[in-house]
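Escalated from tier 1: pyridoxal-5'-phosphate holo job.
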Amino acid sequence: MMCIAESSDLMSTPQDTSARCPVGNHHHFEIASATLAQRTHLFKLSKTATAKIAAKDAATSGKEIIDLTAGEIWSDIAPSVREGAIAAIDRNLNRYTDTVGLLELRHAVACKIAAETAQPWSAEEIAVTNGAKQALFNAAMVLLNPGDEVLIPAPYWSTFPAQIVVAGGTPVFIETRHTNYVPRLTDLAAAVTSKTKAIVVNTPNNPTGAVYDYDTLAGIAQLATDRNLWIIFDECYGAFAHAPHTHHPILSVAPRARNRTLLVNSFSKSLALTGWRIGYLAGPKAVISAVKALQSHTTSSPNVVAQHALLQHLDSGDTGFQTQLQRGIANARALGLSILSELTSVPHPCAQGGFYFYLDLTELLRRMNSNGGRTNADDIVTALLMDTGVAVVSGTAFGDPAGIRVSYGIDLQPLEKALRRLTAALNGWR
Ligand code: PLP
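Tier 2 regenerated the structure:
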């Protein structure tokens, strides 16, 4: 039986406005913690979300805050996406779609992946999802048995381990901080045990900005084949690889790994559509069929209007908007790198892909702590917010107590202001 203890009476008199607007009336429900499932101890609100909330809170106190915590790009909506959405509404499209997405959209995604991997793909090998996040969650839920281990290069995007743990698996982290944020094949191989089921490969990488080269991907695919592992290949930032670095879809490097690879992607970053929640998972039909069954019980289908919008975009063949977005990000990166080149005790960020500068503060923290202090990246993030009004994400969100992630997907003017303040602050702290 559910046991919910109310600390105030919900019943109200007719004059009581709370009956019309209970949300604003601050009724407090105290739920005995014993009523919640044990699995609620397995996850917390993501630290990137927490950093965003801290930035918002600081802004409400009247302080000018420049928010560089976002995992998204400030942009208008692509015209083809906008037209597709409006046309869907005008056509009164308001019903569930096929669980794993409109057949036409899955065809269009299959064509997109075929062009990227130079292999034919069919709609039965695609599940359209509510963003890449759901694609990853589906993957964890249909692949992992309790106790299965999954290798994750660290620093890592925190959702990877969180979802793996919820699905009953065990994340095993592979340190990359001393190898330019790219895992060494020998380290990966040494971490494989009889329980290892999969490896997560995220390139371009969030948070580090590393882009894995061809040989690394070939080596990972070979290891996965030799040791019978799944590859969960997250290429959400694939549209943002900065020259001379190139994004290699892993199946274009290792076509024979197709039977053990799940491709995860979305339109959230490539078209600046985080709020539209359309992503996809592509892989062997048996996996997609299990994902379809799971999704039928979780979200039924992705949003119909958003699906039609993306379908219109893909059918239009319009690459102009994405090119414009890529140019904007390249300009922001160039501006940011030139300002950050003035950092004195922080190495230049790798920034090969995506739209994050990942700063390694190991040396700065060593100096600051040389007389016994215990400052870590969390303290630096708090001090940056309080002293300079610049909000960034602590590396502790990504399993690294000495890094900070600085998003540069915003307009150039506030970006310049924020990075100048950040550089001056980091150079001034001893
Ligand atoms: N994968 C990575 C590496 C990400 O950084 C993110 C979002 O930040 C996602 C997946 C999720 O993207 P979506 O908005 O499509 O769910």
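The radius of gyration is 23 Å.
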